[in-house]
Amino acid sequence: MNSGGPATVSRASLYLQTQIKGGETTGSRITMKKYDKIYKSACRMCHGGCGVLVMVKDGKVVQVKGDPDSPLNRGKLCIKGLSSIEHLYHPDRLNFPLKRAGKRGEGKWQRISWDEAYSHIIQQIERIRDETGVESIAIAQGTGRHHSRHVVRFANALGTPNWYEPGTAQCFIPRIIAGMAGYGGLPICDYYSETNPACALVWGRNPTIAGSDGEPQFRIQDAIKKGTRLIVVDPRKTELAAKAEIWLQIRPGTDDALALSMLNVIINENLYDKAFVEKWTVGFDALKERVQQYSPQWAEPITWIPADQIVEAARLYAQIRPSVLEWGCALEHTPNCLQTVRAVSLLPGITGNIDIPGGMMMGMDIMPGAPNLFEHLPESAKSKRLGADQFKALGGKEAVHPSAHIPTVMQAMRTGEPYPVNALLAFGNNSLVSCADSRLVYESLMNLEFFLVMDLYMTPTAELADLVLPAASWLELDELFGVPYVAPFAVLAQQKIVREYERCSDEEVFIELARRLKLDVGTKSLEEIFKQQLEETEKLYPEFKGITVDEIRKKGSISVPIQYKKYETLGFQTESGKVELSSSYMEKLGYDPLPYYSEPPESPLSQPETTEQFPLILTTGGRAKYFFCSEYLQVPSLRKKHPDPLVEIHPLTAAEHHISDGDWVSIETRRGRIQQKANVTEGIAPKVINVQYGWWYPEDKTPEHGIWKSNANVLTAITPPYDPAMGTYQLRALLCRIKKADSIDG
Ligand SMILES: Nc1nc2c(c(=O)[nH]1)N[C@H]1C(S)=C(S)[C@@H](COP(=O)(O)OP(=O)(O)OC[C@H]3O[C@@H](n4cnc5c(=O)[nH]c(N)nc54)[C@H](O)[C@@H]3O)O[C@H]1N2
Ligand SMILES: Nc1nc2c(c(=O)[nH]1)N[C@H]1C(S)=C(S)[C@@H](COP(=O)(O)OP(=O)(O)OC[C@H]3O[C@@H](n4cnc5c(=O)[nH]c(N)nc54)[C@H](O)[C@@H]3O)O[C@H]1N2
Ligand code: SF4
Ligand SMILES: [Mo]
Known about the structure:
Layout: H1 11-21, E1 37-42, E2 51-57, E3 60-66, H2 79-82, H3 84-88, E4 98-100, E5 109-111, H4 114-132, E6 137-141, H5 148-158, E7 163-164, H6 173-183, E8 187-189, E9 199-203, H7 207-210, H8 216-225, E10 229-233, H9 239-243, E11 246-248, H10 255-268, H11 274-280, E12 281-282, H12 284-291, H13 296-303, H14 307-319, E13 323-327, H15 337-350, E14 360-362, H16 379-382, H17 392-395, H18 406-415, E15 423-427, H19 431-434, H20 438-446, E16 450-455, E17 467-470, E18 479-483, E19 489-494, H21 506-516, H22 526-540, H23 549-555, E20 557-560, H24 567-570, E21 579-580, H25 584-588, H26 608-613, E22 616-620, H27 636-639, E23 646-649, H28 651-656, E24 664-668, E25 673-680, E26 688-691, E27 734-740
Parallel strand pairs: 6-7, 6-15, 9-10, 9-13, 10-11, 12-21, 15-16, 16-17, 22-26, 23-25
Antiparallel strand pairs: 1-2, 2-3, 4-5, 4-17, 8-14, 18-19, 19-20, 22-27, 23-26, 24-25, 24-27
Helix pairs in contact: 5-21, 6-15, 10-13, 10-14, 10-15, 13-14, 18-20
The structure holds ligand MGD (2 copies), iron/sulfur cluster and molybdenum atom (MO).
Residues 43, 45-46, 48-50, 73, 77-78, 80-81, 211, 214-215 line the site of iron/sulfur cluster.
């Protein structure tokens, strides 16, 4: 336990603050007797950031509450945050390093010491590095966590270009690239100024459930209470779609067509912000010419949205200002990923909603000096990055956040082509659940010579490893991070409050491995890295002058006031200094500088023959509020609220297949078949099926943990074609068929 004093909050001041400011802790008088110590920290049960107060008694965390002083969540916590203690002390958590004692995947493990674990890893890394080259060692991680930059740091320090996460081509990085290409940075919704957004265009994103990511879920709800008008683009009638002034019930996978037709209306009806477009954009004429082919009448049969509704939505969006754009990962789950997010990203630009209060603010540089060590990777290694030659925006030399292409890495594991990948070191990545086509992923992993997994629980993926390391969770580790998507831009400190058993943080493992491998870089201590990050931050923001990590821990966060219209003095951080409606970055990489429509490769229009056998359109994802990707299925208070995976089916389709609400349903694609429980609802089109993603069954104690029963990625495709720039595969908008399952296992 961290017994140091600096991290604590004075109880008297806490009491005073909660009394004055209200919030969740108001009225629950925090007395000296009840707790030994109260810490400030930042919740990380999702991508995170919500400020928390952590109460400790007798060395145990006994309560976690929202911090009313946090500029992010202002005292609120979601149900996942509230279950943090159950997660921390869960009996299934991994507590010691484990070495495989039987055949791969047999579920036989032997406890070993950390020293033995390190020696074993070092021996394997050195052997494979000598035999087939360091690039045959791939490194994987999951979606943005405390250690995400440190995984990349370790890969670069080791010298392998082949690190990946299931999100780089499929989640958020494409949005960042579209932001960089168009605006020189990622535009972020501003819910923080005096001006409430007058309109929110919510597109392929379900922010009241998924946030997406941390506290914005609270923000959009507050904004709506204050009058924000809503336009929602979603195949499902989500909570926000039900409240929306206009709900565009789109055919999955056709967002590019819709965005281009909305641009067509806004440009042709002269609804764009002429002053802004003239002064601050380049490529308008080219964009105008490009979108002429994409009229609302053209888009209607493709998107299934009536042309007059497209016109109505475009007019409403263009005429009410300021407005925010909430765009989600649904836009990134088809092989036209980058051009789809590019098309959507231009809407705020041509309507002048950029960097104004209540619009889309520019930021992303709150915590510079990320310890990625990209500069350390030799050019010779960069050119070996798997997929980089083809998918230049994902892994090429000009890529914003270069990573390897998952399907190519998996192929290299299975076939040794273009060269063998013999080892995978996975830090927080349940590949069998989160990467497309789980059967192919399984075959790939089974073929590895050495597979290391570090995780919080023994997942179905960890069961295939040779060595499993026990990871510390957010209440057990130190971190310093900037929150780019909220303002006042904040830097937060997470702190080690307790540490159970022999768990360790991923960062500590990387540092220890780098030291034992005697690498040139990557050996600095975590505190040294934090200090370096703060020095870089101070260069940009005087608010950080002389601030120490301990001070941030004490305060919980440090914020910087938002500045609007920065472009008036600095220009945009693009090649031209302007908003690039036609992107020079895309052109430089050899891609079309203007967005275009491309039908998903497996769809009724692309594959009419397959459609005869698989007549329904499958979309996956649609997050549930109780889980985070494949996590927390074992946490009782959360699972109790949502015991089974749910497949959404329209009543007409259900009736046609003799399916009633609550029946187990078999869902099948050309890749495989799974089962989920029917949620019969009018909130989905008759031809569309939505299956939840992330499911496995921790309560099933066999080593497979029910991985093949309800896992959406048994259905998805990892095969080409991919997005030409990002290599994205198809997770949504596939073809499927359903039938009532005869029994749970049938
Ligand atoms: N509670 C919770 N929070 C999370 C997560 C979680 O698992 N649980 N996951 C985290 C992660 S990694 C991410 S990336 C974000 C994801 O958060 P979001 O980006 O909101 O992702 P989803 O909820 O999967 O999908 C958003 C919406 O897209 C709709 N949709 C499906 N197909 C299409 C389509 O083709 N077009 C359009 N326009 N819409 C479509 C779905 O119906 C859904 O309502 O949330 C993060 N936060
Ligand atoms: N079909 C379909 N597939 C999808 C999606 C979809 O919508 N549909 N969404 C995609 C998206 S947007 C994303 S981002 C990916 C997410 O994919 P991943 O991020 O890989 O998500 P998980 O499968 O939950 O795996 C994360 C693992 O990390 C472990 N973990 C959590 N914290 C730590 C830690 O601090 N250290 C370590 N070592 N381990 C930790 C968890 O226990 C869990 O086993 O999935 C993608 N896959
Ligand atoms: S939104 Fe995320 S960070 Fe906030 S309380 Fe919930 S899980 Fe924690
Ligand atoms: Mo994601």
